[in-house]
Amino acid sequence: MNITRPGYAADPMRSRGRRIPEPAAPTRSDFQRDRDRIIHSTAFRRLVYKTQVFLNHEGDLFRTRLTHSLEVAQLGRSIARSLGLDEDLVEAVALAHDLGHTPFGHAGQDVLDECMRDHGGFEHNLQSLRVVDTLEQRYPDFDGLNLCFETREGILKHCSRHNAELIEAVEPDGVARRFLQGGQPSLEAQLCNVADEVAYNAHDVDDGVRSGLIELEQLLEVDLVQEHWRAALHAHPQLSGKRLLFETIRRMLSAQVYDVIDATRAAVSEAALVDGDAVRQADKPSVRFSPDMRSRSTALKRFLFAHLYRHPQVQSTRARAEQVLRDLFAAYLADPQQMPADFAAQVDLHRACADYIAGMTDRYAIREHQRLTGKTLF
To answer: Does Ribonucleoprotein appear among the keywords (predicted)?
Structure first.
C-alpha cells in the first residue's frame, strides 16, 4: 500500500511486528487487520453492556463502554487525518483501549484492585493488554489476538513500575519499556489518549443533563460550556432545549479538535519530530491541547467529577456495584467450580477470579450475584 505519510507517523510496513509472526494479509495493512480482530472479539461485544457512568438498564440512550469507544475512534480518525497519522492504528487503539474495563466502570476496577492487593493488583489498562494478549481465545495457533507492537503499545496507556518490570522480564524492549526508561508511545497512541478525554467530557455532559442529575444552568459555570452556549444562541437565537444542548456540545467538540490539531502541529514542528524514533525519545507527549484549552478541559473535568460522578444517585449505584463484585470474588475464591472450567483450573486462582469477573457485563454480574448469594441489589 503506497501511502505517503509524514515521517513521524506510524507505518504498517515498518511495524515492529507481532509476537508470533504471521504472513501478511493480501488486502489489508497490519493495522487494519488489528482493528478487524478487535471488532470481532468477544471482549469488544461485551462493551455494549458495560457501564460508562450510568448502568445499561438505567436508560437506553446513555453511553456504554462500546458507544464511548466508537466516539473515541471517530474523533481520533478525524484528527489523525488532519495530522497525516495512520487512521487505522488510531482506530484499532481507540476500539481496544477499554477492553479490560470491569463491569460497573471504575467502581469495578477499584474493587478488583482491592481484592487483588496482595496478588499483583488490578489495572484496567493492563487488563486490556491481557485481553488481547492472552484471554481472547479465537485462533488455533495462539492465545489472544496477536496484535502488532504498535497497537499493543497504544492499549497500554498506563502501567505501574512493578507491572512494567514484570512485562519487561518476558518481553524485553517491549511495550512496557517506556514506563521504565521514560519516553513516549507513537503519536497515534498519544492521540487516542487525548481523544478519549475529549469524548468522555462531551458525552458525560450530554448524559448528565439527560439523566437530570445536572442542569444546563449549572454547566454554564464552566467557561468552556458557557462560551459555546453563548455562540450557539448568537447564531440561533430561538434555539432551546435539547437542540441548544446538542449544538453547544457540537461546538465544544469542534473547538477542542481544532485546538488539538493546531497545538500538535506546533509541537511536532518545535520538537523537529522527523521519525518514529524521535517521537518515542521526546520528553513529553506531542499530541496535546494548547495551554488555554488544557486549562478549560481540566475545569470541565473537575465540574463533572464534583457534580456528576460524585452525585448521591451515582454514588448509591456505585456502592451496590462494589458489593456485587466483592461478593462475587469471595464466592469464586471459596468455590472455584462456580466459574467455567478453564478459569477454575488455573494455578493462580486470585488472578483467574479477577479475569473472570473483569470480563463480565453489568447485567451478567448482577445475575451471577443473585444466583450465588440469593440477594437482589439492583
So the answer is: no
What distance in Å separates the CA atoms of residue 94 and residue 154, rounded to the nearest whole number? 8
Domain that holds residue 240: 214-310
Identify the bridge partners of residue 18 per DSSP, sorted by sequence position: 148
Q: Are residues 105 and 184 both part of a single domain?
A: yes
Is 122 in the same domain as 173? Answer: yes
What is the per-residue pLDDT across 141-168, written as a single tens digit (0 to 9) for each?
A: 999 999 999 999 999 998 999 999 999 9
Q: How many domains, in total, are found in the chain?
A: 2
Per-residue burial over 91-107, b = 16 or more CB atoms within 10 Å of its CB, e = otherwise = bbbbbbbbbbbbbbbbb
Identify whether residues 110 and 219 lie together within a single domain: no
- Dist CA 161 CA 180 (whole Å): 7
Q: Cell 463491569 identifies what position?
A: 103
Q: 275-285 burial, b if ≥16 CB within 10 A, otherwise e?
A: ebebbbebeeb
| Residue that terminates a domain, selected from 251, 278, 310 | 310
Q: What letters, b where the CB count within 10 A reaches 16 and e where it falls short, cover 236-265?
A: eeebeeeebbebbbebbbebbbebbbebbe
Nearest to residue 192, comparing CAs of 246, 281, 130, 128?
Answer: 128
Structure confidence by residue, pLDDT tens digits, 10-44: 999 999 999 999 999 999 999 999 999 999 999 99
As a whole number of angstroms, the distance between CA 309 and CA 270 comes to: 38
Give the Cα-Cα-Cα angle 265, 270, 273 (nearest 5 degrees): 75
